[in-house]
Design brief:
mainly alpha; 85 residues
Length: 85
């Protein structure tokens, strides 16, 4: 595995959550970058606005998170903990 691949796997491991998936995380980050209000993102993701806000606060502090999610942006499968650690 390449150095950047190892970093991406560590980032994904750091943000993995059983109730979230890479596609939803990517959509949340992209929406916030484009100025979409969290409540509107929550409606699009069919999630509670408080859950989306908490997830946003978790994701925004992880360096390189969007780049790590980029290859998985269309995946709505749960995070695979075995491949990320």
């Amino acid at each position: 595995m390449s150095w950047s691949g190892m970093i991406s796997q560590r980032v994904l491991g750091a943000i993995a959550h059983p109730n979230w998936n890479p596609g939803d995380d990517y959509q949340l980050l992209t929406g916030c970058e484009n100025g979409v209000p969290l409540r509107r993102i929550a409606v699009g993701l069919m999630r509670d606005p408080r859950a989306v806000q908490q997830r946003w606060h978790r994701l925004r502090v992880v360096p390189g998170v969007k780049a790590a999610l980029e290859p998985h942006k269309a995946s709505h499968r749960p995070y695979d903990y075995g491949d990320m650690l």
